[in-house]
Request: fold
Amino acid sequence: MVADSGEAIFIGQAKPGGEPQTLNLRRANRHGLIAGATGTGKTITLQGLAESFSRQGVPVFLADVKGDLAGMAMAGSPDGKLHEPFTSRTRDIGYDDYAYADNPVVFWDLFGEQGHPVRTTISEMGPLLLSRLLQLNDTQAGVLEIAFRAADDEGLLLLNLADLQSLLLWASANRKELSGRYGNVSTASVGAIQRALLQLEAQGGARFFGEPALEIADLMQIDAQGRGQVNILSADRLMQSPQLYSTFLLWLLSELFEALPEVGDPDKPKLVFFFDEAHLLFDDAPKVLLDKVELVVRLIRSKGVGVYFVTQNPVDIPHSVAGQLGNRIQHALRAFTPRDKKAIRAAAETFRENPELDVETAISELKVGEALVSTLMADGAPSIVERTLIKPPRSRAGPLTAKERAIIRSISPFGEKYDKEVDRESCAEVLAAKAQDAAETADAVARQGLDDVRKQPRRTSSIWEKAGKAAIGAAASSAGGMLGRKLAGKTSRASPGKSAASAAAGSVGTELEKLVGIPGLGRFARGLLGGLMR
Reply:
């Protein structure tokens, strides 16, 4: 009898009566690769692995590129068209523990249509990833970096695309001053960035930026039965914008890396991340971005996160990244072109040699549902590659109906938190208010004279008035968040008082730097006042 255990996940059987092929949970955070031509069974393999991780209490994140992974939310059925081949396979490999079962699925969608909206802020995305998303050249990327630095120095919140568009208009109008402080800011570069933003907005990318931003902890939940949450990103529409798809997944990896603590080598991963259509991450990527991917993949292992790339051709993965993928499942490749032959040869050379198996020949002869498997053993060494019959999934292998998806979404614990967008005062509103104040003041001077206008009350708030408003807003937001989490039975380390103090200190620090004109004073004041006011 073969089955998942508390130490390993069952992948399949080498052959009827052969050795079971497993994935050691202690080595599952050493990353992996699932490769093979279209129609060879990669999706079924991915689905079976994700189910097993969930049953072992490991949360999973995966992208549903074709819509057929959504069926993981429902148990398989004897009435399904794959029932007979699945049950036949279980008999062939001695999978006696097999029974249909559902999974604790939560649906996400950057566009908010087939799942809860996934959002981040412009500031959290940062200029490096935004430059890739907008496909900027080096000069344009440099101008975007300057805009971000100026926004930070001016205390301007960048939450959504409207904020970034307003910031660029302001940067263009003040390009001489900015060029003197940070470096050259040309109208041509600003214009190119603005045009790229228009294209992104036309693709629906504006929905990705805003609040409430996704909290990483919400992807790492365990249900009452001890199963890890299966997070499925609805990506069928997203794949029409491959730059947005790949940039989002890279951002998510980066957020995981920054947010999670070091755990070394845990008994099982804290989260497993499946990156389907992985070639999109590396296509035309600049070296600085490839370096970032390599760094994140190399170091995120110690955070307890396993990253599994899913792609058609193993040569799609750069050598610097592929060398870190310890667990490999290779489905069939077809040698129709010289590049195909090269890929087969390259794939064969990555496996630990099996004297009884001609790996290069086997790769082109594998049937649907078969794969060459080699995983890291308990001592960290790769296992000898074996030709393996892959186990079938327990859940439905296919899409959901619209009604089924709506029901699953309706019982999700995250609807109230993410489904409604929040639009608070940020860069766009602040710059619009400043422009309106300036216009009204100029009009008043023209009509009444400068001396009379000087006697009138200030149009803009003093720094202490701004600090008070910032503190009240932050305290209310933090208190509301605490109340919501308590009602949901969750704990929170948020403090309304500390949030208010931080917001007030930040506001005062920014205004002091503007008044005094000493670069860096704002950061110093924010730190000093923040400590005194808490």
Summary: Residues 463-487 form the longest helix (25 residues). Confidence is low (pLDDT under 50) at residues 474-506, 515-534. The radius of gyration is 27 Å.
